[in-house]
Amino acid sequence: MSSNATVTAKEILSLSFSLDQFFLIIMGMVVYFMQCGFAFLEAGAVRSKNVTNILIKNVMDSFVSGIAYWIFGYAFAYGDGGKAQKFIGATYFASYDMPVDQYASFFFQYTFAATAATIVSGAVAERCEFIAYFAYSFVITGTFILLLKTFSYFDIAFFGFIYPVVTHWAWGSGWLVDGYNYGGDIGQIAYQDFAGSGVVHVLGGVCAFIGAALLGPRIGRFQKGSNVVGTLRGHSVPIAALGGFILFFGFLAFNGGSQLTISSEGDGAAVAVSVVNTIISASFAAFGSLIINRLHIFGNTWSLLVTINGALTGMVAACAGCNQMHPWSSAVLGLFAAMSYTLWSTVMKKMNIDDPLDAVAVHFGGGITGVILIAFLDKDDGILFNWDKKSGLKLGWQFVGLAAIIGWSALFSLVIFGILKCFGVLRVPREIEDKGLDIPKHNEPAYPVEAYGHGHIEKLIQ
Amino acid sequence: MSSNATVTAKEILSLSFSLDQFFLIIMGMVVYFMQCGFAFLEAGAVRSKNVTNILIKNVMDSFVSGIAYWIFGYAFAYGDGGKAQKFIGATYFASYDMPVDQYASFFFQYTFAATAATIVSGAVAERCEFIAYFAYSFVITGTFILLLKTFSYFDIAFFGFIYPVVTHWAWGSGWLVDGYNYGGDIGQIAYQDFAGSGVVHVLGGVCAFIGAALLGPRIGRFQKGSNVVGTLRGHSVPIAALGGFILFFGFLAFNGGSQLTISSEGDGAAVAVSVVNTIISASFAAFGSLIINRLHIFGNTWSLLVTINGALTGMVAACAGCNQMHPWSSAVLGLFAAMSYTLWSTVMKKMNIDDPLDAVAVHFGGGITGVILIAFLDKDDGILFNWDKKSGLKLGWQFVGLAAIIGWSALFSLVIFGILKCFGVLRVPREIEDKGLDIPKHNEPAYPVEAYGHGHIEKLIQ
Amino acid sequence: MSSNATVTAKEILSLSFSLDQFFLIIMGMVVYFMQCGFAFLEAGAVRSKNVTNILIKNVMDSFVSGIAYWIFGYAFAYGDGGKAQKFIGATYFASYDMPVDQYASFFFQYTFAATAATIVSGAVAERCEFIAYFAYSFVITGTFILLLKTFSYFDIAFFGFIYPVVTHWAWGSGWLVDGYNYGGDIGQIAYQDFAGSGVVHVLGGVCAFIGAALLGPRIGRFQKGSNVVGTLRGHSVPIAALGGFILFFGFLAFNGGSQLTISSEGDGAAVAVSVVNTIISASFAAFGSLIINRLHIFGNTWSLLVTINGALTGMVAACAGCNQMHPWSSAVLGLFAAMSYTLWSTVMKKMNIDDPLDAVAVHFGGGITGVILIAFLDKDDGILFNWDKKSGLKLGWQFVGLAAIIGWSALFSLVIFGILKCFGVLRVPREIEDKGLDIPKHNEPAYPVEAYGHGHIEKLIQ
């Protein structure tokens, strides 16, 4: 080709397509790194005796998802479901016959699936059996019949597909994304959830809620007949903060990357708007949470952990419509997210449900805030900007979406955690909980005493 | 469009523009992650009793910047200032009327603003009031009237705009970037500062200097009538090193991303050259600092923390002209940076100013090295390559820029820190400093004693 | 140019080239961040008395590489070697005369060189002289005559070029990548190693093996006449896990980025396929290692550190051909990698060679698995897909490549470590090993006892 030859649309399409794949891969990589963020947010929030346990749960999350989402999950979510298309997909199992052009999309969706599963591990920390959690993360991210005999004391077959089916509904070609054609001036109305306030975070939050509720609280958390809540502090604020910082970074890719393409006109701006709205919502939510916790009956200190959780809640709330909001709407959204976080955190304590990470308050609390408020704040057809029947119907569809996601995930969580509980394999025995899981289950204390010495901390005791 | 249709310039421009936005977003994301780097570099360098405090300062930095830079900062920096354009911008407050195409640029500039504020937190660590710092970071990154009544014991109104105005001068359309037209063979000469050796690092370093000087040293750091400097070691070398590694990573985006576009011919090479020069300058600065500290009167051990600070100083020095240097010039620059770091670190101790992080030596010391040496090392019109009146005038403009930045930031820092000091709200009371800030101010000890036990460190005491 | 003007091939080529450089730079940045991953994987695995020492080794790795690879390494690897071209390159020393368009490539290759050197530091941890290691990393990543007089007690001149020469053979224009033309139906057959299972990991693993063997085991690791292996646990599981998570993230860029371009048709898909195969291989290797360690004679607990190492081994094994495998082949590869890891880890213990990080098992064990199995699993001409003379010859070339890499790196490692050992400067004295290296060598204890107190851990002792 001479350098003066004209270029055809085919060539430019090829270049655009490469660019889009590049975008999905790098954004997916950063979302993948969120596994590290969740792992450390959780590791810092548990006691030193359970650190290895929470870390291995998070490490395995990525890799179990890698297997389960590859074999089943992506097929259910983005395969062709034929007659069942409104409900579930059914091609590309184990990437069979999957066009090579779709691998970037597969990778990006895989990183989201891994994230969804991780939300639960925080809520069930410090008392859930390794195997119970482990099998569970298959069910959220894929679907798997697992002969747990091989795990020496389980014998349960799981079959589930919680997350992929919901993504099929809302992001694939399912009934939520299709919505309904009301005809006339109104036209098609559907469930809106850009980066997954509902699909990822409400879903994860519901599973976390059910898991924490069925497990029961950690020893020492609540006293019968008393309103005093034991704090059971985590063992390392800097480790938790490291996780928070990594998640702040990762969320920019989570929300920005959800545009899925970058090459079309307007894509660049849409991604940038999403990122900016995510930052603004997080900023106001962090600020709001900090102040609420300072002035409120909840406490009168400047809490770092509350601030981090507040910021994360703001980012979760921004998922639903960060591509469709004015920045000032994000500011409003962030303040609502801060309130929702505080509310749900309080409700959980009142209900005596022990969620060591406040995962329910962050993900469920933030998620429902995002799903509902986008119906008000969408700059084109939100209720605040366009008060008519159409925006009302839109709000209705947001509630339909929420109800579907909550119902579906609650049902499956109840069944799975319920069965595990019936068989007595959901929760570790009391003596192991007391002793911590790291040594009995993993023989890997997080900070082995014999590895310290010679002029360091231990000098103290000489 | 058929696949053989020819492509028009409009289509290719749209694609190029998307690519540029993608570039700014991903580079901005990595710069944003530098917040995590600063947080951990600082957290490792303080004593265990002040870890939560330094972390919350860094977390709030990102989010306070998110609010203040959005509402005021970007408008002052990149808005249209009309008649005052040479000095300050005045549109796009709270992104009002800001074209959607500018959001990527907004995001990238926001991440720089957040970084500038973070430099100060290291220098004032372990003794500065949370609120004093907090309000201060509004002033650096934006400008804000804050009724501190809401913070229960403050009642001060702040108004300032330190950083955005300087960026307007040097990177927006202000007088420093415009420079002066000397006519004839010489033409336009202006202040040169590609990624902000002066704009970001000298500015941050000056504020850090004033803050540390007005606060006074931590208890135990200097003894009256003695030349012995108390070390007051930080509590965790690995935590500090983690911060260092993250900053090394982030600086590549900080300097490479400052090209701002990637789609034009030569952009790719310019970014690559910037990144390579950053690495080479850092390598020689790290090596130089390591050796100086080993051979010098300053010590005779191989110090990790000195090496990390040396490398960072090399990266700071590379900011000013990493896009306009030969690699061997970067090697020379790195060695000068190492000397500047050692010099300023020593000077601070001689002046009995306590800078726990050596932030002044790294950022001020590295920054002035970069701003001045680029006038010698610029491959096109540096004094070493082109000894004439033009290169001399260029050096003059670098001094003008430095003087303006130092004067501006010193003035505002003195006013703000001075007022806070007058009102007695700059520094925490002596008993809180002794006890550490984490428990009295935040009720969140970094490593709560009750979270440890069961076969771990504490076994020691049985 | 009017917006309707047609676009010429020259313009599109320029845009494509910018895009490719962008791709190399961002991928290289993430690979560069792997330095942080290696540093923390290793820091967590040593005892608290050697943490600063292992961190400074890793920090200096990046920067020593920055100097040595710039001055010599890249020239030997990718320069023009004239008549010696099959064996070594010889232009671009200190980037002299290097076209500006090649800086992105230089940067990317530099990040790989830095990685290769880091592999060794784990295996020689806790007992190797700082200077011995330091000089050694010059030799791996570049080549350097170093007058060690300046280091106060050494006087040895080094000259070597281990890694760059091998990359010249396999990735530059050397004899391994050229291969041999068998003519007829078979044609050209050459050594295949996409992202460096052999070039990076086998090479690093061999050096690690020789280093660990010549150094001898740490005190307390093996007892004479006993089969009991002392564990000498590392001091912090979360620090090691942090390193692992960062490496998982970095490996996606390591393997995906090895495509080197993104703009050509098929590049995007190739990168995505590489990333997906890396994840799948890691997932099965992690799972496999977890199970083997649980069921096997090697232990009966769920080990986090084994799982992390297993996953890394799967990623190492994927390097050789992740761009040329079906996902199910990656699953098979991952299971083999898990077995190879376990095997080599056991062999090392039986041989009484002390490798604190299991670096040999991960990198050598994973590397040879990848180099050999790609000859079976390549989707186009692997033995499983295409059983004929051609695929047999291909397997032969893989063994030739392995033999060349192992021979070359073993030879130079033996010479260098041997000389250092003869001069008695390879290993620290016994009393320093006992005391730990941090205080005698660096005067920087990782966790200085005086930095703790006031309501934290130390309360215990009151």
Please render the helix and strand layout as text.
Three copies of one chain form a homotrimer.
Chain A: H1 9-45, H2 51-78, H3 103-123, H4 130-141, H5 162-170, H6 175-178, E1 180-181, E2 188-189, H7 197-215, H8 237-256, H9 267-295, H10 304-318, H11 327-350, H12 359-377, H13 389-422, H14 430-435, H15 438-442
Antiparallel strand pairs in A: 1-2
Helix pairs in contact in A: 1-2, 1-3, 1-8, 2-3, 2-4, 2-5, 3-4, 3-7, 5-13, 7-12, 7-13, 8-9, 8-10, 9-10, 9-11, 10-11, 10-12, 11-12, 12-13
In short:
The structure is a homotrimer of 462-residue chains. Chain A is an all-alpha fold.
How would you describe this structure to a colleague?
The structure is a homotrimer of 462-residue chains. Chain A has a two-stranded antiparallel sheet with strand order 1-2. Chain A is mostly helical. Chain A has helices at 9-45, 51-78, 103-123, 130-141, 162-170, 175-178, 197-215, 237-256, 267-295, 304-318, 327-350, 359-377, 389-422, 430-435, 438-442; strands at residues 180-181, 188-189. Chain A contains 15 helices and two strands. In chain A, 61% of the residues lie in helices and 1% in strands. Chain A has a single domain (14-169, 187-442), classed as Ammonium transporter fold. In chain A, a hairpin with a 6-residue loop joins β1 and β2. Chain A is globular, with a radius of gyration of 23 Å. Chains in contact: A-B, A-C, B-C. The interface between A and B is large, with 84 and 79 residues.
